[in-house]
Each structure stands twice: as structure tokens, then as C-alpha cells.
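Lecture 7 notes: from sequence to structure.

We start with a single chain of 288 residues. Read the sequence below before looking at the structure.
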Amino acid sequence: MTEPRTHTLEVPGCVLHYDVREAEGTTEPILLLIGSPMSAAGFTALARHFQDRTVVTYDPRGSDRSTRTGGAAESTPELHADDLHRLIDALGGGPVDVFASSGGAVNALALVARHPEQVRTLVAHEPPAAQVLPDREQALAAVADIRRTYDREGFGPAMVKFIVVTGHQGEIPADFADQPMPSPAEFGLPAEDDGARGDVMFEQNLITCTHYEPDFDALRAAPARIVVGVGAESEGQLARRAGEAVAERLGTKPVLFPSNHGGFLDDTFGMPGDPDNFAVTLRQVLAE
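Now the structure, written as C-alpha cells:
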């Protein structure tokens, strides 16, 4: 595998940046590794384990290097899916294999529903599609409260609520918004509101991602193979429960991946998963 080469792609309202790690002589489809709002940097450790394949990573619109040039304030899964469609076209049209995590998994489900011919295998790891949960009303109300907290109090208090919701075991309580929260300082977060806004997760993706309901009829009819992955250490948490619910609606069983929601991460981001064993499981799933 060569060192990554960075390219740009102009799409409506944004200039996407993506990185190609070329593998010479391979007959395998391109492996596209995506998150949202996580950028390409989050997949560096995982990409190292696939040196026999051409690996592509990218920064979703609004994240890191992919600068927005206009358009709506929020980025919907359908909008991200159209970005991915154009990216795959730029890479030769596919079909590609896709490993997608978190919000990226939601966007990838939208991609397969809208452009099914472009994907051979999608591994959707813990899509936080709260809309499909049995406790959807409480979950979506909690997400809306996080967004209101961000608008009212800023990044630190909102991130605390985000951490509490995503780490909560079991159904989200109906009175989440009224529950006392830890201090942002306990998580190393700023307690004071500096007035800054524009966070890509809170402003552009949080509501649209969690409120999105996949088109299950289109997904079941698609030629693409769809595998839902869940984290071994995520039992009872919102993203794993949503992943399990998506798999059930697709008529499949989720595949258990090592570690947690960020199991493919190394220690670069301070919350290491188990990227070595995660890559083993991903390779096995892609080979089936």
C-alpha cells in the first residue's frame, strides 16, 4: 500500500477531501472507510490492516478539511449519501466495499437505498438510528434536549449530555432533560460558554442522523450485502441497540465486533479500542 494521496471533489455546497491508499495488483474492490462527523483521521489505524487493498477515507462535509461553501445549515443522511455517490463515481463508479461507523453507518444505509449498484458489501457499525428504537420518543426527545443545551449553553454542557445519553444502559428515561448532569470539568470539558458555535456534530448532524429512518424496503431489495456490526462492550447502549434494531428490520443477525463504539480506534484520540482484533473481524466479514 502506498502512502495516502489527498484529492478534492467539488460537490454542491462543499469541497470534499479524500485520501487514497493505493494497493498495486489487487483484484479486490476499493474499501471505503467512513464515519460522520468523524473524519479520515479516525480510520488511520484501521487502514493499516488492509495493505492488500486500495483503501479510501474521506472527511464528510463540514468536517476537518471538507469545507462547506454554502447550502442548508444541517447535513442530512440523504445529502451525505449523495456526496458518497459522487465520491464513488470519482473512484470509478464501484461497486465498492464500505465499512461505516456511527453516523457514517446511517449515511451508508442511505447510500445503499439510493444507489444500491455502487456497493458490494456494507458493514454498518452501530448506526445511531434512534428512530427505529422501541423507546424512540424518549431517545429523540433526549437528542433534541442536547441540541437545545448546545444552543443555550455551548459545547461543554451539551457534550456532557451527549456522553451520558450515548453511554446510558437500556431505554432512555422520559425525564432525561430534567436529570442532574455531571460537571463538564469531570470530563475535561469547558464549563463556561465562550459563545462559539458551529460545531459540526451538534449543528449539522446530530438531529438529522438520529431522526433518520432507513428505507428498509429499498435496503432489503438492494443487491448489496448489508452486515450490521455491534460492539462487544456496547451492550445496552443506544448505538448498539439501534444497530440491533436495524438488523432485525433487515431480517439479519448483527455481527459482534471487538471493543466498543470506537473499537477501530488506536490511542490517538485518548479512548483506544482494539483496532488489531477489530480488523481481523472486519476482514472475516468482508471475505464471507
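The mean pLDDT is 95. Keep this in mind for problem set 3.
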